[in-house]
Design brief:
Layout lengths: L12 H9 L5 H14 L6 E3 L2 H16 L10 E5 L26 H8 L3 E6 L33 H8 L5 E5 L6 H7 L2 E4 L20 E5 L2 H11 L12 E2 L2 E2 L4 H15 L9 E5 L9 H16 L3 E5 L7 H16 L18 H12 L2 H13 L5 H25 L3 E5 L15 H6 L5 H6 L3 E8 L6 E7 L5 H14 L11
Parallel strand pairs: 2-3, 2-4, 9-10, 9-11
Antiparallel strand pairs: 1-3, 4-6, 5-6, 5-12, 7-8, 11-13, 12-13
Helix pairs in contact: 2-3, 5-6, 7-16, 8-16, 10-12, 10-13
Protein name: Glutamyl-tRNA(Gln) amidotransferase subunit A
Catalytic activity: L-glutamyl-tRNA(Gln) + L-glutamine + ATP + H2O = L-glutaminyl-tRNA(Gln) + L-glutamate + ADP + phosphate + H(+)
Keywords: ATP-binding, Ligase, Nucleotide-binding, Protein biosynthesis
Amino acid sequence: MANTPLHTQFSSIQALREALQAGQLSATELAHSALEAIEARKDLNAFLHVDADLTLEQARNADAAIKAGKPAALTGVPIAHKDVLVTKGWRSTAASRMLANYVSPFDATVVSRLADAGAVSLGKLNCDEFAMGSGNQTSAFGPVRNPWDPNAVPGGSSGGSAAAVAAGLVMAATGTDTGGSIRQPAALCGISGIKPTYGTVSRLGLIAYASSLDQAGPIARHARDLLELLEPMAGFDPLDSTSLEFCDGAPNGPGRIRSRFDAAIARQQKNGSRPLEGLRIGVPREFVGEGLSPDVAQAVENALKTFESLGAVRVEISLPRTELSIPAYYVIAPAEASSNLSRYDGVRYGHRAESYKELDDMISRTRFEGFGPEVRRRVLIGTYVLCHGYYDAYYLQAQRVRRMIANDFQQAFAQHCDVIMGPVAPTVAKAIGDNREDPIADWLADIYTLGVNLAGLPAMSVPCGFGTERPLPVGLQIIGNYFAEGELLAVADCFQQATDWHQRTPGNQ
């Protein structure tokens, strides 16, 4: 690829960090090369806002910190942020016309914590509008294209984040996951991504879609880079009412995830040639049934055999309410969206219709002009299920099903397994424009990811192979119990030490 960024010469954030601190290259050089690559790959439509002055200012500050002998964990590392995380300087649009020119007066906690860790931001990444979508086709600024096939979707809603990492434009990126929006695009773009336990990462400054489901997390090429980002991202935030102060008795703060990762790695090393000896992998029978394409099923099966060769034991389990996760999610999430998006009325900030007669007409026209079809669809559904006479029949029932889904996971972990594995998506990436006339088909494709969000569990995706008819990436989903991010990353790292799927890049399969 022309204009290949300098950071792609390094296999990991750790290797890049060592080179920076040894003076082999500078953060400013890294930033310049990445900005040139972003310009050269505008065809991907991965970035919505790039400001070279802001980026280079951060890079110069990183170089100064290294020169002063005070580098932080991510000093000089080039990243970018999904455009539902607000940022000072860069626009924060949620990929919507409603916020097309909005600039936040503050940074999201995730953004500020990564900046404090020294990361250099290259800008804001495209996504589905207000994170509502599974293919990054609902963005008001056009679809993102998959670096493996420009005619295919990258997955959504964090499609810009996944495409930017897969194309080598950034070392890592932030994403958000409401129903699979980190794991699914990571899978379809052949990279890794993790959704942490709900409440472990601050939601302050995350433009809300569904408040009880949204959770930010990192996207990178492999598990150890995810750890490098998740460590500073996670932690209690007193300004976020959904933020957890303690995680299974341990303070939700620096070192919690890394210490559990290191402990898991130490256990693996003691086991020698069978590092995962004794690990029980639950494979839900509901994840391998009708609707799963044969090539995805084969790639997942091959990955499971690799885990078995590393000492793990496969256990068949049941998550009997898997199919119910779809109707439960698509009642709860739109209901919360209906409430969250009511603030966009044209009165305080954001888009306002130019022509209207009175206040009600102004609000109606503003929302019709500012929101795209998918957002309007979900807001209407959410408003309907919250109406008097329908609340008990739909919303309350969905919340009851949500609790039963969470209980199913807890029963599996308590009685049968340590982690759960299966596919992320039923197929490889579809062509841009598929299902345009049938949005429900995209909703059904979220069947393997939604239950995790409804239960608030941590889960991740790692590359595990390619399709046969269409040679596009396949992702393996690894689900853990609450607060097990470190253990999940260690299991994924062990798999990636034994395979090279995460090292494959577009054009170098």
